[in-house]
Amino acid sequence: MEKGREHKPHIGIFGRRNSGKSSLINALTGQEVAIVSDQPGTTTDPVRKSMEIAGIGPAILIDTAGIDDTGNLGNLRIQKTREVMKMIDLALVVVNNNETGDFEEALLDDFYEAGIPCIFVHSKSDLFPLHDTFRKYFAGKYAVPLVDFSSADRINLPELISAIRKAMPETAYQKQSLLGNLVSSGDIVLLITPVDTEAPEGRLILPQVQAIRDILDNDCVAIVLKERELDAFLRQTGVRPRLAVCDTSVILKADASVPRDIPLTGFSILLARYKGEFESYLMGTPAISRLNDDDRVLLLESCTHHVSCDDIGRVKIPRWMTSFTGKKLQFDVVSGLNHLERPVTEYALVVQCGGCMITGKQLVNRLKPAIAAGIPVTNYGMAIAWMQGVYKRAIEPFVMNSGEEEL
């Protein structure tokens, strides 16, 4: 299942077959989003629906197949269900008839391991009222909220919404700034944006659009130009921007043209700090210089697009890395949120794209296995800056602003 085009909190609904998951998502959204049937296994693939939650804003609900499905097809459905865990910020576990068991405890273990908060929803309370003995048993055994709910009458809907609001991590919905503490109101930010074969016809790529919006949100002034106009613009106007941001593919040109006393970085590096794992990137990027012959490098593209001759991940980075290291390297590219074809431990380096199309939670979960295994990770922009010899300057705005010592 490919996800990532909506930067909203994601809520996954989990439980056994016929536990009331689809009825719950219908009740929450007030629409017949998911098919409801007495036949177990009606939900086969995850079903997604956007809704507005008071106090949170827009959120994505994901209905999943039963965690107790059986057979070869059932195992594939369970695998799809488990993939949803990588992209959610909050889990709702649906139970009924005053029962929990191994399936629910396994889910709890998974959520705890992934750092995902969860709420148990005792569904079908109109048919199976919640007993005080079960409530006390549950409170003593599980350190998570339990909400009694009936999708038929929706009487406890406000209580459930309140529980969701309390359990949802604020980082999942609070607006963050891409530029953060790099600029102040009234500052000028220069955006150097090449228009190449990867740029969508008549549009800018998403990181550039996000940067423009963030500049405006910070009450700053955005000046957008192509790299070919950079020298003439600086010479003729005398403008002194507070910050310059470029597509990392032209960072060498930008480094030569932008005066050294003006901070310079790349769009992908901005996203690296914004999305998370920036510290891991800082530690992992120098590993590029330690690559050896026959080392395997994993390139993670978190979106899917048509491949061009100038493709940054599939063409340019492998070419630059091979030239920079002088080694015979092997490259694998995985797009979207697809499974890796080989264990991550077989890689000497993982290079993640900027991640403009996925949430921070998804990016962190994507990189977690590599980081846990001690495999160096870096980001497209930071890797390019390293190989172009301008890494120190490209990360300097963030390192110096965070109070760390200059590298």
Write up what this structure looks like.
- It is a single chain.
- It contains 14 helices and 14 strands.
- It has 407 residues and is an alpha/beta fold.
- The protein has three domains: 10-172, P-loop containing nucleotide triphosphate hydrolases (Rossmann fold); 180-270, Rossmann fold (3-Layer(aba) Sandwich), CATH 3.40.50; 276-388, Rossmann fold (3-Layer(aba) Sandwich), CATH 3.40.50.
- Strand 4 (90-95), helix 3 and strand 5 (118-122) form a beta-alpha-beta unit.
- The longest helix is centred in the N-terminal third of the chain and has 14 residues, at 71-84.
- The radius of gyration is 24 Å and the shape is elongated.
Core attributes:
single chain; 407 residues; alpha/beta; Rossmann fold; 3 domains; 4-stranded parallel β-sheet; 14 helices; disordered C terminus
Question: What's the topology here?
Answer:
Elements: E1 10-15, H1 21-29, E2 47-53, E3 57-63, H2 71-84, E4 90-95, H3 102-114, E5 118-122, H4 132-141, E6 146-148, H5 157-167, E7 188-192, H6 206-217, E8 221-225, H7 230-237, E9 243-246, H8 251-257, E10 264-266, H9 267-275, H10 278-284, E11 296-301, H11 312-325, E12 330-335, E13 349-352, H12 360-372, E14 377-379, H13 380-388, H14 391-401
Parallel strand pairs: 1-3, 1-4, 4-5, 5-6, 7-8, 7-9, 9-10, 11-12, 11-13, 13-14
Antiparallel strand pairs: 2-3
Q: How many strand units?
A: 14
CATH architecture of the largest domain: 3-Layer(aba) Sandwich
Low-confidence stretches: 1-6, 402-407
Strand order across the largest sheet: 2-3-1-4-5-6
CATH superfamily descriptor of the largest domain: P-loop containing nucleotide triphosphate hydrolases
Order of helices and strands: EHEEHEHEHEHEHEHEHEHHEHEEHEHH
Which bin fits the share of residues in helices? 25-40%
The major β-sheet equals: 6 strands, mixed
Report the mean per-residue pLDDT as an integer: 85
**Gyration radius, in Å:** 24 Å
Number of helices: 14
What share of residues are in beta strands?
15-25%
Shape: elongated
Classification by helices and strands: alpha/beta
Distance between the termini: 40 Å
Number of domains: 3
